[in-house]
Amino acid sequence: MSQSNNTLSLSPYMTVKGAREAIDFYVKAFSAKEVFSLVDPMDGRIGHAELVIGGVTLMMSDEYADFGAISPETLGGSPIKFQIYVEDADPLFAQAIEQGCTELRPMKDQFFGDRSGTLVDPFGHTWIISMKKTEVSPKEMQDRWTAALQG
Prior knowledge:
By secondary structure, this protein is an alpha/beta fold.
C-alpha cells in the first residue's frame, strides 16, 4: 500500500429537523461555536452549517430527503453517538440537561477509567459526556468488564 502526503480529516455530519434551532441549542448546551450557515433561499432551511465543539468541526443540515439527508426523528432514532471529552464532565452534563437534553444514563465512574453519562438532545442525537479519571490498559478493561458481567 502506498503512502500519501494527503492530510486526512474526519468531521461528523448530522441531519436534523430544525437545524437553526439545533445550532442555537448546541451553542447553549455544549458551548459550540457557529462558524457559518448557508440558508436555502427557496424555503429558509439550513443547507449546510458548521459548528466547532472542542476543536472538532460538526457539520449539519436540515432534512433534504431528495439528497438522502434524513433526521433521527424521521428515521425513529440514530445508531450514531457523539462523545465529548472534557476536563470536568459533570458541569457540561448538567448544562446540557438544563438546556433540554434528556438523561439516558447518569454520570458515573466507569470500569474503563472514565466518568461519563449519556444524553439525548431534542433533535434525536445521543451524546456521551466524558472525562478521563484513570488510565486503564485494554487487558484490565477487559478483565473489569468480564467481572462486571459475570458477577
